[in-house]
Amino acid sequence: MIVNGKPYRTIWLHPDNNSIIQVIDQRHLPHKFIIEDLTTLEEVCTAIKEMHIRGAGVIGACAGYGMYIASLEGKKNQVSNIQEFLQLAGKKLKATRPTAVNLEWAINRQLAKITTLKDDINSIVENSAKIAHIIAEEDVDFCQNIGKHGVKLIEEISQRKQGETVNILTHCNAGWLGCVDNGTATSPIYEAHGKGIKVHVWVDETRPRNQGSTLTAWELGQQGVNHTIIPDNAGGHLMQHGLVDIVITGSDRTTYTGDVANKIGTYLKAVAAKDNNVPFYVALTYSAFDWEITDGVKEIPIEERDPREVKYIKGLHDGEIKEVLVTPKNSHAANYGFDVTPARLITGLITERGICEASSEGVFSLYPEKNK
Ligand code: MRU
Question: Tens digit of pLDDT per residue, the chain (372 long)?
């Protein structure tokens, strides 16, 4: 997508040195646009864990490139058992964040090939680079397709409203910054905007990390999409007053039965949407599906992060990014990163293959090869 008039992705290999991964360091947005070089497995793990990059799609892509960096490290250090070394690298990467299933999926995809290559280190390096590249390119294509399918929902509402502005509410950042390009939830919005359909986005601020007010708002602004930042508690009120036509969020893990884990607070938006007959859609690529588990509430692991993220807030002061304490110093805080929205509250899933019901029947109708 466009940043200050120039096209960017969230992750790529350094154009002059393909042993360096470059990422947009999202910790500094919207105030500073900084590109970070990642040169070691340790740095890749830190970038994921400490949320220099975040969002299911780009976490998966970064994990894919992380396995490539690990294989380069193995080659450079002439490790004696490269298979064991890379299994360990995969374990380390998987331990960085538990909820987004894309992480595990990307590493397993790498390891499935790597294990067949025994101790042929050159072939391991070559293949892991190839697979990392495919994972990133697929994410771009699939997100684009989500846009093509999802835009139909916005078009229908626009026609029903006789061309009046369509109001879309979104939570967290399921935009291009959370993917490699385009985004999941934002892709239909960008597609609609590109087609000249009038859209306006209600952007939940998304405490405590403020992915909405810092990232979604920034990227929508860069693409010229009309938007308004709202406190996380405002969505229900807006829905009661007919000011939300559709909710579209992303997903970090969706069971094949249709339960969706996404940023904490998503569930409450779905409850409010149900109560007000507002359609609630979730946009995701197939890498965010979990094909093993059936009950999202019981089985999806929910990340708990440092309570400091709740107690302190970051912002710009005198040109410097500063952190300030916003709670009593000694109060305890809890920081659950995600919640699970049960399938019954979800109107539909927007995927790269089309739109389906949030149920195993719906999901298998788009992914019949998974119905074993
Ligand atoms: O903790 P984060 O910022 O990684 O959480 C991100 C989200 O919850 C997004 O909505 C999600 O990854 C979906 S879209 C890529």
Answer: 889 889 999 999 999 999 999 999 999 999 999 999 999 999 999 999 999 999 999 999 999 999 999 999 999 999 999 999 999 999 999 999 999 999 999 999 999 999 999 999 999 999 999 999 999 999 999 999 999 999 999 999 999 999 999 999 999 999 999 999 999 999 999 999 999 999 999 999 999 999 999 999 999 999 999 999 999 999 999 999 999 999 999 999 999 999 999 999 999 999 999 999 999 999 999 999 999 999 999 999 999 999 999 999 999 999 999 999 999 999 999 999 999 999 999 999 999 999 999 999 999 999 999 998
Catalytic annotation present for 120:
no
**3-state DSSP call for residue 244?**
coil
Longest dimension (CA), the chain: 68
Most informative mutation of 1, 48, 49, 54 for ligand 1 (most atoms within 8 A of CB): 54
| Spatial distance between the Cα atoms of 26 and 9, rounded to a whole number of angstroms | 12
Looking at the chain, which runs of residues are DSSP E strands? 2-3, 6-7, 11-14, 17-24, 35-38, 166-170, 199-204, 227-230, 246-249, 253-255, 260-263, 280-283, 289-290, 312-317, 320-325, 338-341, 348-351, 354-356
**Residue reference for tokens 């998304």:** 206
Task: Count CB atoms within 10 A of the CB of residue 323.
Answer: 12
Ligand 1 near 179 CB (within 6 A)? yes
Per the CB < 8 A criterion, the answer to whether 354 and 281 are in contact is no
Catalytic option among 181, 252, 290, 339: 252
Give the ligand 1 atom nearest the CA of 57.
15
What domains are there in the chain, each with its CATH number?
2-138 (1.20.120.420), 149-370 (3.40.50.10470)
Query: SS in 3 state form for 120-173?
Result: CHHHHHHHHHHHHHHHHHHHHHHHHHHHHHHHHHHHHHHHHCCCCCEEEEECCC
Do 229 and 212 contact (CB within 8 A), yes or no? Answer: yes
Distance 264 CA to ligand 1 centre (A): 10
pTM of the model: 0.97
CA Rg, the chain, in Å? 20
